[in-house]
Amino acid sequence: MLENCQRHHMLLGLGVLTGVTILVLIVESRYAAEGPRRREQQFVIENNSTCWRHEKYTVVQECHPCSEFDIVSKSLGVCIHTHYKELLRCQSGEIVTRSCDRVALIEQRNFLKFEILCFIVGALSYLLSYARDRILSRRTYMKIERQLNRVQ
């Protein structure tokens, strides 16, 4: 079936599939970040402060691992559940430590690894197919040339 398709039709189809994939990824990432299924974290908050829930805040320190001391001593309640914490500064000036998940970052990294692996496998498959096509074309031309030489 692929032998009957013209090259520009195949490239057009591949481009459409690539565009649809990128569109789905964009829509899915926005829906996952803002959608109704967004999981609210029910973790212990240091000093029972929840200013970040009802005020605007800025992230002072991104999500990073808690120290071994914080985890073992349980000095920070936010480190007990996920072993990750981030520092926030609320609009009122209060600095709060909150627990956070590293799952999103890990999933993003794994997704990128998967995409790179798929690209490499696809490129290798293309190169092998191209090389095989060239070999078969050369054999066909040689066979036709031999047949024409016999006739003459």
UniProtKB/TrEMBL annotation:
It is a single-pass type I membrane protein. The keyword Ion transport does not apply. Keywords: Cell cycle, Cell division, Cytoplasm, Cytoskeleton, Membrane, Mitochondrion, Mitosis, Signal, Transmembrane, Transmembrane helix. The keyword Transport does not apply. This is Protein JTB. It comes from Drosophila ananassae (Fruit fly). The chain crosses the membrane at residues 12-33, 111-131. It is found in: Cytoplasm, Cytoskeleton, Microtubule organizing center, Centrosome; Cytoplasm, Cytoskeleton, Spindle; Membrane; Mitochondrion. InterPro entries: JTB. GO terms for biological process: mitotic cytokinesis. Its main location: cytoplasm. Belongs to the JTB family. One of its GO terms (cellular component) is mitochondrion. The gene is Dana\GF24960. It holds the Pfam family JTB.
